[in-house]
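Reviewer 2 asked us to include a model.

Predict the structure of this chain.
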Amino acid sequence: MSSLFNFTASASRHALRWALRGVTLLVALCLAIALGFTLYAVSALPPLKPWHTERLDGEFTALRNSQLDLAGYLQLEDRLFDELARTVARWDTTDEAFMHSRFNTRGPPNVLADGARHNRSYRLSPPQPRGAALLMHGLTDSPYSMKALAESLHARGFDVTVLRLPGHGTLPSMMVEMSYRDWVAAMKIAARDIAAHTGAGQPFYIGGYSTGGTLALLYALESLHDPALRRPDRVLLLSPAIELTPVAALANIIDVASVVPVPVLEKVRWQEIVSEFDPYKFNSFPVNASRQVNRATRALRRELERAESAGRLAQMPPVAAWQSVVDATVGATGTVDTLFARLRDPRHRLILFDVNRSSALRSVQRPAARELIERTERSRPAYSLDIVTNAATNSDAVMVHRRASDGAVTDQATAAVWPPDLVSLGHVALPFPPDDPVYGFRRGSGRGGIPSIGSWLLRGESGAITFSLGSLTRLRSNPFWSLIDDQVGAMADADLATAR
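Predicted model (structure tokens):
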């Protein structure tokens, strides 16, 4: 008995030693990663500007302001933008970076965006609303990204509220301290207001782009078990952020040195520092932005698992998602495998935008996109699947290949064609029409004599300009936006007919 006791005690001590070694190794690895990032940030990132370091005091936070209604939220936002104007007025207007930035009210970005008034929350109200919608933008983004979808719904009689998420629309520095809990609190404030003003029987939609799609799904899932939340009648998602790569978890450790009160270490808060020439999207990217979207997507996955375990997904309102099969920001597999694989109802609809399947491009295309589509079709999904793709490999014409939940397949011709030299859509392209004055890719898009950002195509040597030349080849608008507009219209018309 004594020998058995000694053996057990020895084994326990041995296990404890290995556990301590493992913890020590993990801590050492985390510190090494944090030190490596600190050295990179301090030595390689460009100098910080006032819009990276100064903070505004009037931003909404869940801790301080969750008791507000939407009118109070919008009043707080008014004061925040007044504070922004006073802050910017103190900056050196002769600084070249300022002169060409979004913060110069007379500069090219503001001319292009006609004063950039869509950095703030806004509402489109028809004379006699037939339904209501709440839409939310993505990370580093602004309410402008929901403008085309909002106008599509408004044209069908919906009263549409587009919410500015806390931390956005003002200074990039405000993303350093924002929290996804602030986003959720603001969303619920807006949803309560919409529910209170939407007539009985009128449809209520909730939707979002990228991280805004994460939030819309979170709300819809919570509404299945929380009677205080009005359950939406439909969820609309554009490039939703469902699942990030495991590397995103590093955001929890890499900026640890930023807590040291040394000015040079302020750079450690940032993953990228880029000139701010975009009137509606921050180009600089703080570590905290990765941290908060990672927390939001993890919360979404937990809520999905709970709803699935409790059998609540059968009550989920119809979900429609538009997703590019090539998505360098959040990927497409999260939408397909994490979300839609759990949805077993033909009312749910996934629309995948394929890459250009022209035979002339076959030799330079990666096979992963085709593999995802083929695997999805083989899985015999219980939802409706649309694939926007070439009508034939020798044709630029575009069709919609539709697979119903019962396995029936139809091909629908469209008037759309692939533009020359375009190989795929992508994460940032989906919400914007091709002639959008800010992001349109068509030549001639723009405003006030300034070409749209999406139509810029510069060539030269790396380092010649203040941002990556490669970033200009990424598609910024959607040549097939009219398909989305038509599909949204058909869904809205059907729901409004049912409501009548």
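Residues 46-499 form a domain with the Rossmann fold fold (CATH 3.40.50.1820). The mean pLDDT is 89. We have added this to the supplementary material.
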